[in-house]
UniProtKB/TrEMBL annotation:
Family as reported in the entry's similarity comment: Belongs to the membrane-bound acyltransferase family.
Transmembrane segments: 6-22, 51-70, 77-97, 117-139, 151-170, 226-244, 310-326, 371-388, 414-432, 452-469
UniProt keyword Ligase, yes or no: no
Name assigned to this protein: MBOAT family protein
Keyword Membrane: yes
Species name: Nemorincola caseinilytica
Keyword line: Acyltransferase, Cell membrane, Membrane, Transferase, Transmembrane, Transmembrane helix
């Protein structure tokens, strides 16, 4: 089931009413309702993969008890088994065809023809997210940060809570499980915050991201026929399409969770106001970045064992992050490009310069230095997005080459409006709104004037309804 569908607009209030007015007598009943609703939500997309989700959940639930064993050899064995099972599920469904084709091409270069058997099956939605939930739970038990959960229902809710099931944020057991296990009471203020987040998230996805998608598809499909200015506009449009699409999903997820008394981890903190690449990754897809930091980068040694290992570990984490997004060389190139952008900051010990502060913290506008830093970071990120959006590395390289060559051949084109200029109608308002909210991404403050507040709500809701019938899938569903 998609958030941006009429089915979800019916599903959500039904579950909400049952949750607070029928199943509110016992915590177990509430959790059981959430679990059934989550499986229904997932099964609406494809019931064929329900068994895979349940199997993954059951295995890690069982492994958790053995990983907690004081016998460290036994604990390591079942930790390894959990990793093999989760990565095996990912490898089969997400990466098998990629590696099979790479082997075919490799043997072809040696003059040996092989005809591999390929899987003709759709990638299960959310597989990259719920497998990471399971692995983090088992890892945390092994490290002593989490105790095994006795109630299978509670654990299954942690893995498959429907707001975050298919595209995150990637939750941690020690953050979400305590909320699952303790009684929850309806809070009107929190619920209204949730409704505002859902409304704004829907607007970003349905009105902004989906409207930009047509422009982006047209420009990237016909890039070899368009001038440089139009290609630049296409790349910028995609930067805001993917931001509106994914951060919109995250806002809806956070808002929906608030309606049921849960607080999820933040996934976005206005990344396009970042002043360097390191800050961008602390603000973009935060739950994934922190997951790789805690479960890959730090176990590899992080940056505490010399510059060589720090550089090695940085490239590993960015390459793995790129490969996590998709079984294609262009995603790996995207990760490698970000690693190269991060490397100078690491070597100069400036990668943690902007850890907690916000741009223009105490002023309405950024300084000239901050503006330049944000602009150059955004340009770098946008160039990298071309590799992310392109179907192949060669297409991405051709897109960038045409921008450079055509700019030199026809510099006068920048005096005229480019194709895709209509994207600014959606980009500028979103940027202005984000700028006003940049100090707190979780709470959308409502205008004090009641009439103004409801006029804004009505306009946003009307625009959403007018565009809702498209039901374009969220970009991160394919990951």
């Amino acid at each position: 089931m998609l958030f941006n569908s009429f089915e979800f607009l019916l599903f959500l209030p039904v579950v909400f009413i049952l949750y607070w007015f029928v199943f509110n007598k016992k915590l177990l009943w509430q959790n059981a309702l959430v679990l059934v609703a989550s499986y229904f939500f997932y099964g609406w997309w494809s019931w064929q993969f329900m068994g895979l989700l349940m199997l993954s959940t059951l295995l890690d639930y069982v492994y958790g008890f053995s990983v907690a064993s004081p016998d460290r050899k036994r604990a390591r064995f079942f930790l390894t088994l959990s990793i093999i099972n989760n990565l095996g599920i990912l490898g089969i469904f997400k990466y098998y065809n990629f590696f099979a084709l790479q082997f075919q091409q490799g043997f072809g270069l040696l003059g040996i023809h092989i005809d591999p058997v390929l899987l003709n099956v759709a990638l299960p939605v959310g597989i990259s997210f719920y497998t990471f939930h399971g692995m983090s739970y088992v890892f945390d038990i092994y490290r002593g940060h989490q105790k095994p959960i006795r109630s299978f229902v509670d654990y299954a809710v942690f893995v498959s809570f429907f707001p975050l099931l298919v595209a995150g944020p990637i939750e941690r057991a020690n953050h979400l499980l305590p909320q699952v296990q303790r009684p929850r009471y309806f809070n009107f203020t929190r619920a209204m915050q949730g409704c505002r987040l859902i409304l704004w998230g829907m607007f970003k996805k349905v009105v902004i991201a989906d409207s930009l998608s047509g422009t982006v598809d047209m420009i990237f499909t016909n890039y070899h026929e368009l001038n440089a200015f139009s290609l630049i506009m296409g790349a910028i449009a995609f930067s805001f399409q993917i931001y509106g699409d994914f951060s919109g999903y995250s806002d809806i997820a956070l808002g929906t969770a608030k309606l049921f008394g849960f607080e999820l981890l933040s996934n976005f903190k206005f990344p396009y106001f970042s002043r360097d690449v390191a800050e961008f990754w602390r603000r973009w897809h935060i739950s994934l970045s922190s997951w790789f930091r805690d479960y890959l980068y730090i176990p590899l040694g992080g940056s505490k064992h010399g510059k060589y290992k720090a550089i090695r570990n940085t490239f590993i984490i960015f390459l793995v992050s790129g490969f996590w997004h998709g079984a294609s060389w262009n995603f790996i190139a995207w990760g490698a490009l970000h690693a190269c952008g991060f490397l100078p900051l690491l070597l100069l010990n400036r990668n943690r310069k902007h850890v907690s502060d916000v741009v223009a913290q105490d002023s309405a506008l950024p300084s000239l230095k901050e503006f330049w830093q944000m602009l150059t970071t955004f340009i770098f990120v946008t160039i990298a997005w071309i590799f992310f959006r392109a179907d192949t590395i060669s297409q991405a390289a051709g897109y960038i080459k045409r921008i450079v060559v055509n700019s030199m051949q026809q510099p006068s084109q920048f005096l005229h409006a480019p194709m895709g200029k209509g994207a600014l109608v959606y980009i500028v308002p979103m940027l202005l709104m984000d700028w006003t909210l940049r100090r707190n991404e979780r709470i959308l403050a409502a205008p004090r004037n009641k009439l103004v507040r409801y006029i804004i709500y009505y306009i946003l809701f009307a625009l959403i309804l007018l565009n809702l019938g498209k039901e374009n899938s969220f970009i991160y569903f394919q990951f």
